[in-house]
Specification:
Layout: H1 22-29, E1 38-41, E2 50-59, E3 64-73, E4 78-84, E5 91-100, E6 103-112, E7 115-126, H2 127-130, E8 132-139, E9 142-152, E10 155-164, E11 169-179, E12 185-191, E13 195-208, E14 211-224, E15 227-238, E16 245-255, E17 261-264, E18 269-273
Antiparallel strand pairs: 1-2, 2-3, 3-4, 4-5, 5-6, 6-7, 7-8, 8-9, 9-10, 10-11, 11-12, 12-13, 13-14, 14-15, 15-16, 16-17, 16-18
Pfam family, one: Porin_3
Protein name: Voltage-dependent anion-selective channel
InterPro entries: Porin_dom_sf, Porin_Euk/Tom40
Length: about 280
């Protein structure tokens, strides 16, 4: 007979369907900026019952700006974040969230120019005794729904749909995900069975002299009917000189249908500091 300790699940909750390839996406897209643009930001996490101010400065050839995120987190699961800009009455974004027993509720109100935009969402990963996840989102333009279910140890399948209120059309996706306790992740998703996205990420350990180096590597390919084969490769590692910083690089290759493969050199190298 297995003991209670040995029969515990190897992870806490299943992933949300919208996050099936989150680890890969973070390495390939997170904290990169557009060409010719510089961005400096503070990302300090707010301790409970504390206000935190995180300034953000962006510099582009035709646009420069400074904003600030003011965040407060309560010990009972609530938090409020306000993004303020110099043009306060034209660009003000407020986010309020509350987490209770595995359910997260969030509301966003964005005052932008003369428009008031809103977003309401809910997500949970504790359905069916922590074997299913659900996420919903409502805005002025779309209604989004995602569902994920465990089907085997470390394996999940899911489906999602996005309904456009203005266009009165529905976009749906199917996917499956595998992960393990070594931070390896693989996912395959399809959009209406017309395009297929395959992604994978995981750690890579090696030594340089007497120093151990740990990289996180991610790769993604997108293919489908009458569209080019698109591939991306990215790496992420701690800076050897300043371990609090993270170095990132990525490269992209694209092949038109029936044409030669086109390769883009590594796009950029990002260095960021965790507050």
């Amino acid at each position: 007979m297995e003991s209670a300790k040995s029969s515990k699940r190897p992870y806490m909750t299943p992933s949300l369907f919208k996050d099936y390839n989150k680890a890969t996406k973070d390495i390939l897209t997170k904290n990169y900026t557009a060409d010719g643009m510089w961005k400096v930001e503070c990302k300090h996490k707010a301790p409970v019952n504390t206000f935190v101010f995180n300034p953000v400065a962006e510099f582009a050839p035709k646009k420069q700006g400074i904003t600030c995120d003011i965040e407060y987190t309560h010990e009972h699961g609530g938090s409020v974040k306000v993004n303020v800009a110099p043009e306060l009455l034209k660009n003000l974004k407020t986010t309020a969230s509350y987490t209770h027993e595995g359910h997260k509720f969030e509301g966003v109100m964005h005052l932008k120019d003369d428009k008031v935009l809103y977003e309401l969402s809910h997500q949970t990963s504790v359905l069916l005794q922590k074997r299913a996840s659900l996420n919903e989102k409502l805005t002025q333009e779309v209604v989004e729904l995602g569902l994920g279910v465990d089907v085997a140890p470390r394996c999940q399948i899911g489906a999602g749909a996005v309904y456009s209120i203005k266009k009165r059309s529905c976009d749906w996706n199917l996917g499956c995900r595998y992960f393990n306790t070594h931070a390896c992740e693989m996912a395959i998703t399809t959009n209406k069975l017309k395009t297929f996205t395959t992604s994978a990420s995981g750690p890579l350990n090696f030594s340089v002299g007497s120093r151990d180096v740990k990289l996180f590597v991610a790769a993604e390919t997108v293919c489908g009917q009458k569209r080019p084969l698109d591939g991306k490769l990215g790496v992420e590692a701690k800076c050897l000189l300043v371990p609090a910083n993270v170095l990132k690089a990525r490269s992209r290759a694209q092949q038109e249908v029936g044409r030669q493969l086109h390769h883009e050199p590594p796009q950029q190298l990002v260095r960021r500091h965790h507050g």
